[in-house]
Amino acid sequence: MKLIIKLLLTAVAVVVLAKILPGVAVEGYGSAIIVAIVIALLRLLVKPILVLLTLPITIVTFGLFLLIINAIIILMADYFVDSFEVVSIWWALLFSLLLSLFQSILFSLLKEDQ
């Protein structure tokens, strides 16, 4: 149940960010739910592999390269979901930063309710 609520909150954040950022577009709420699921799966399956492969550059940049990895995950979600569009890696970077911020705020509100 908690996973479903987190996915729905992420979908709401995706819709809000798509309305705010001109370089990001999502067609509707159903598409936003699919985007949230795809991003969660990519973060679960692909991100650890990318982190491991880019460990030397991540160490050299003091972890800032992880921001680029998050942007790559967003661009991969753009590739897999037709109704989700991100114009460039810079919009993906901004989207991933704001999505992480929104998720931390929304998930902290979820923890306070329990």
UniProtKB/TrEMBL annotation:
Signal peptide: none annotated. The chain crosses the membrane at residues 28-46, 53-77, 89-110. This is Phage holin family protein. InterPro entries: Phage_holin_4_2 (IPR007165). It comes from the Bacteria. Keywords: Membrane, Transmembrane, Transmembrane helix. Pfam families: Phage_holin_4_2.
